Amino acid sequence: SNSNQIFINGKSYEVDSWTNVTPKIISYIGKNLHLQKSHPLSLLRERITNFFYFHYKNNRGNPLFSVYDNLYPIVTVEQNFDNLLVPEDHVSRNKSDCYYLNSKYLLRGHSSAHENELIQSGLDNFLIFSDVYRRDQIDSSHYPVFHQVEGVRLFLRHELFSLNPDAEGSIDVFEKGVRTETKQEVHTYDAARVVEYSLKSSLTALVRHLFGQNAEVRWVDAYFPFTHPSFELEMKFNGEWMELLGCGVLEHQTLVKAGVEDKIGWAFGIGLERLAMILYNIPDIRLFWSTDPGFLNQFNVSDINTNVKYKPISIYPPCPNDISFWLPGNADEFSDNDFYDLVRTVAGDVVEQVNLVDKFYHPKKKLYSRTYRIVYRHMEKTLTQEEVNKVHRLVEEAAERSLEVKIR
Ligand code: PHE
């Protein structure tokens, strides 16, 4: 029957025990902020694209990288995880972290979900700009939908060692060796080092292109299931190191899964909101969804390299309200993200943050309690206490109804 199906863009998805996507989240599909004229995410997309177009040309003088910016966000578990060698029991697969349509389909959690199909189609150098979806905490830098740019570059042996044509005969890309901290078992040390150097120099140059030559950056070792070695790039911002991106040398097995045996390459993934917030001084991630001309007009510039600094229209006061409840009997099935999603659905963008402020177990009642502080703050006006109370009551009612909690 129809009640057991979700319809999105004319396609139906069978509801099962994995289904946790909400109508609110589905409503973000197709918004494509990164393609919206004079939106800060769109400006940033153009600047990143230009960097790659100008810095990397093929031997006919054309841009080396192809750009994909409108790939459909509903992907399979295979695309989002299996193709990327994410272990069966890895936390990133959990229902509490992803928006599943059902056990087979989900909203992509990262642009890496498209690496396999694009590599399989024969591409060696490409960028993907896309909206990605993750269940997460609520604060000024987290939103369940955000945007990423992914970059992939693959090399054949002669491309990797093209600067040293004399050495081409004597330097190999592949060997049957051992995995170390700096390379995979199938790669030679030389090849792994050259790819790592190409990756790091490209990304350092990109960050300097965006933030200026004096940007202070550092490399930190990291782990991703589909790259080795893996790194994160951090930048000093307001005296603190901020993580900007994840990257690494692609696991050879991910290429083999895409039908490529003779290449080695790198990949990176960057969150665009984080970058745009630093670049344009945007203080709250909800602003990216604002349709207020007072926000958008500030980014209506004719030169994409204009150094826009966002000026807040004005600051409206925060209204904190606490909510406390007893969890239902099956308390271990409850995740904080279940509550955060409910708040998003019911209260929407008037919520600035939600923080867990207290949890305890009542041994006599044999019940678990949670208290969250919800900070209500409108982006464009002052909220009255009456308005806040009304929304807060809706949140309480919805929590009792759909999470089966008991308000204390
Ligand atoms: N997909 C990773 C993330 O979203 C980032 C990444 C991309 C890491 C490519 C390595 C290579 O966190």
From TrEMBL:
Residues 314-408 form the FDX-ACB domain. It catalyses: tRNA(Phe) + L-phenylalanine + ATP = L-phenylalanyl-tRNA(Phe) + AMP + diphosphate + H(+). Gene3D superfamilies: Bira Bifunctional Protein, Domain 2 (3.30.930.10), Ferrodoxin-fold anticodon-binding domain (3.30.70.380). It is an enzyme of class 6 (ligase). The keyword ATP-binding applies. One of its GO terms (cellular component) is mitochondrial matrix. It comes from the Eukaryota. Residues 129-293 form the Aminoacyl-transfer RNA synthetases class-II family profile domain. The keyword Metal-binding does not apply. InterPro entries: aa-tRNA-synth_II, aa-tRNA-synth_II/BPL/LPL, Fdx_antiC-bd, Fdx_antiC-bd_sf, Phe-tRNA-synth_IIc_mito, Phenylalanyl-tRNA_Synthase. Its EC number is 6.1.1.20. Keywords: Acetylation, Aminoacyl-tRNA synthetase, ATP-binding, Ligase, Mitochondrion, Nucleotide-binding, Protein biosynthesis, Transit peptide. It is found in: Mitochondrion matrix. One of its GO terms (molecular function) is phenylalanine-tRNA ligase activity. One of its GO terms (biological process) is phenylalanyl-tRNA aminoacylation. Monomer. Is responsible for the charging of tRNA(Phe) with phenylalanine in mitochondrial translation. To a lesser extent, also catalyzes direct attachment of m-Tyr (an oxidized version of Phe) to tRNA(Phe), thereby opening the way for delivery of the misacylated tRNA to the ribosome and incorporation of ROS-damaged amino acid into proteins. Belongs to the class-II aminoacyl-tRNA synthetase family. This is Phenylalanine--tRNA ligase, mitochondrial. It comes from Artemia franciscana (Brine shrimp).
